Amino acid sequence: DIPYYWTTDVNGAGWAEFTTGAAKDVDNMVYLTVGTGVGAGIVSGGHLVSGYGHPEAGHIFLQKHPEDTYAGHCPFHGANCLEGLAAGPAIEERWGMSAKEIPDDHLAWRMEAFYLAQAILDYTMILRPEKVVLGGGVPHREILFPLIRESFAEQMSDYLAVPPLDDYIVPVANGDNAGILGCFYLAKTLL
User: Fold this and answer.
1) pTM above 0.90?
2) Do β-strands 169-171 and 47-48 pair in parallel, antiparallel, or remain unpaired?
3) Is residue 56 over pLDDT 80?
4) Residue 133's beta-bridge partner residues?
């Protein structure tokens, strides 16, 4: 007779960012985690998006960067999906070093920004969120945010109106505690 809430770890982290974090001032947001994999927690109208199952936003198909010859890390989609191209293991395999070791001026970051911006563009076109929050280990690199915003603006090409990019594509506010906080907040909704 103990109430419980069953969801994904990414939904938990996204809910924390929606409740007390970087997206606490909006009703519609995408939380994207980029680490050992790529996943998303999506909130629409104040509710987590789910249907037949949870969203698999890390496996959307992307166009490859013109300079990328990497075969991809995803065992299902190779170099065709976001996770296969942009997750931490893909970065390490492609460049032969971990994301922590790659210098800020390395092509790796422009390429990573290209892929993340392309994904954010897709989510923007379909979901029209008020904010996109990036978490996980890879976005710990601060160099990424200006590069993602620049690539997003270039790829969007003024097609749709979005909030100012410094307010639209943002890092987590709850840091690495987002997941556990989200679990607490979701459980609290049942009381």
Assistant:
1) yes
2) unpaired
3) yes
4) 31, 170
